[in-house]
Amino acid sequence: MLLGSAEGAPLAAGRGTSGDGLLQMVQADNVFADVTGWKPMSPEAMATANPDFVLMAARDASDTHAARSAASSPALRLTTAAREGRIVTLGGMALLGFGPRTLATALDVARMLRKPPSG
After folding, report:
1. Once rounded to an integer, what is the mean pLDDT over residues 48-74?
2. What are the phi and psi torsion angles at 102 (to 5°)?
3. Which of 50, 81, 105, 112 could form a disulfide with 86 if both were Cys (CB 3.0 to 4.6 A apart)?
4. What are phi and psi of 89, to 5 degrees?
Protein backbone atom coordinates (compact mmCIF):
# COMPACT_ATOMS: atom_id res chain seq x y z
CA MET A 1 0.00 0.00 0.00
CA LEU A 2 1.30 3.41 -0.93
CA LEU A 3 0.63 7.02 -0.14
CA GLY A 4 1.65 9.92 -2.33
CA SER A 5 5.21 10.90 -2.86
CA ALA A 6 7.77 12.29 -0.49
CA GLU A 7 9.99 14.21 -2.88
CA GLY A 8 9.28 11.70 -5.64
CA ALA A 9 9.48 8.53 -3.56
CA PRO A 10 6.17 6.84 -2.71
CA LEU A 11 5.49 6.26 0.97
CA ALA A 12 5.02 2.55 1.66
CA ALA A 13 2.90 1.19 4.50
CA GLY A 14 5.18 -0.76 6.77
CA ARG A 15 4.35 -2.70 9.91
CA GLY A 16 2.19 -0.84 12.42
CA THR A 17 0.44 1.43 9.90
CA SER A 18 -3.22 1.68 9.02
CA GLY A 19 -2.28 0.45 5.55
CA ASP A 20 -0.74 -2.68 7.02
CA GLY A 21 -3.84 -3.11 9.19
CA LEU A 22 -6.11 -3.07 6.15
CA LEU A 23 -3.89 -5.58 4.35
CA GLN A 24 -4.09 -7.84 7.40
CA MET A 25 -7.90 -7.51 7.39
CA VAL A 26 -8.05 -8.85 3.83
CA GLN A 27 -5.35 -11.47 4.47
CA ALA A 28 -2.96 -9.96 1.92
CA ASP A 29 0.80 -10.08 2.17
CA ASN A 30 2.49 -6.75 2.80
CA VAL A 31 5.75 -6.67 0.83
CA PHE A 32 6.87 -3.80 3.11
CA ALA A 33 6.22 -5.59 6.42
CA ASP A 34 9.97 -5.60 7.15
CA VAL A 35 9.89 -1.83 7.80
CA THR A 36 8.00 0.00 10.54
CA GLY A 37 5.77 2.97 9.79
CA TRP A 38 5.34 4.88 6.55
CA LYS A 39 8.69 4.98 4.71
CA PRO A 40 9.73 6.46 1.37
CA MET A 41 10.79 3.75 -1.09
CA SER A 42 13.43 4.26 -3.74
CA PRO A 43 12.94 2.82 -7.23
CA GLU A 44 15.46 0.11 -6.32
CA ALA A 45 13.62 -0.84 -3.12
CA MET A 46 10.29 -0.89 -4.95
CA ALA A 47 11.68 -3.08 -7.75
CA THR A 48 13.17 -5.45 -5.16
CA ALA A 49 9.86 -5.66 -3.25
CA ASN A 50 8.08 -6.16 -6.61
CA PRO A 51 4.46 -6.03 -5.44
CA ASP A 52 1.90 -7.95 -7.49
CA PHE A 53 -0.80 -5.42 -6.58
CA VAL A 54 -0.55 -1.82 -5.35
CA LEU A 55 -3.22 0.06 -3.44
CA MET A 56 -2.79 3.82 -3.41
CA ALA A 57 -4.60 6.21 -1.12
CA ALA A 58 -5.91 9.28 -2.93
CA ARG A 59 -7.86 12.34 -1.90
CA ASP A 60 -10.42 11.58 -4.57
CA ALA A 61 -11.33 7.92 -5.14
CA SER A 62 -12.30 8.68 -8.73
CA ASP A 63 -8.81 9.97 -9.57
CA THR A 64 -7.82 7.39 -12.19
CA HIS A 65 -5.01 9.67 -13.37
CA ALA A 66 -3.11 8.94 -10.13
CA ALA A 67 -2.95 5.20 -10.86
CA ARG A 68 -1.86 5.74 -14.48
CA SER A 69 0.74 8.26 -13.42
CA ALA A 70 2.05 5.95 -10.68
CA ALA A 71 2.38 3.04 -13.11
CA SER A 72 4.78 5.04 -15.26
CA SER A 73 6.76 6.50 -12.37
CA PRO A 74 10.39 5.42 -11.95
CA ALA A 75 9.53 3.89 -8.55
CA LEU A 76 6.79 1.60 -9.84
CA ARG A 77 7.22 0.98 -13.54
CA LEU A 78 9.44 -2.10 -13.04
CA THR A 79 7.00 -3.84 -10.69
CA THR A 80 4.66 -6.66 -11.61
CA ALA A 81 1.75 -4.49 -10.42
CA ALA A 82 2.55 -1.76 -12.96
CA ARG A 83 3.29 -4.13 -15.84
CA GLU A 84 0.02 -6.00 -15.30
CA GLY A 85 -2.13 -2.94 -14.60
CA ARG A 86 -2.82 -3.78 -10.97
CA ILE A 87 -2.43 -0.36 -9.38
CA VAL A 88 -5.68 0.75 -7.78
CA THR A 89 -6.45 4.15 -6.29
CA LEU A 90 -9.03 4.35 -3.51
CA GLY A 91 -10.18 7.19 -1.28
CA GLY A 92 -7.67 7.72 1.50
CA MET A 93 -10.16 8.02 4.35
CA ALA A 94 -12.08 4.92 3.23
CA LEU A 95 -8.84 3.00 2.81
CA LEU A 96 -6.91 4.17 5.88
CA GLY A 97 -9.32 5.98 8.19
CA PHE A 98 -10.72 2.92 10.02
CA GLY A 99 -14.14 4.53 10.18
CA PRO A 100 -17.63 3.61 9.00
CA ARG A 101 -16.50 2.82 5.42
CA THR A 102 -13.61 0.55 6.40
CA LEU A 103 -15.46 -2.76 6.26
CA ALA A 104 -17.00 -2.06 2.83
CA THR A 105 -13.60 -0.90 1.55
CA ALA A 106 -11.89 -4.02 2.94
CA LEU A 107 -14.47 -6.22 1.19
CA ASP A 108 -13.88 -4.34 -2.09
CA VAL A 109 -10.11 -4.74 -1.72
CA ALA A 110 -10.45 -8.45 -0.92
CA ARG A 111 -12.54 -8.95 -4.10
CA MET A 112 -9.97 -7.04 -6.19
CA LEU A 113 -7.08 -9.09 -4.84
CA ARG A 114 -8.81 -12.37 -5.55
CA LYS A 115 -10.10 -11.45 -9.00
CA PRO A 116 -8.32 -13.53 -11.66
CA PRO A 117 -6.16 -11.51 -14.08
CA SER A 118 -7.92 -10.57 -17.29
CA GLY A 119 -6.41 -11.44 -20.60
Report:
1. 75
2. -60, -45
3. 81
4. -105, 125
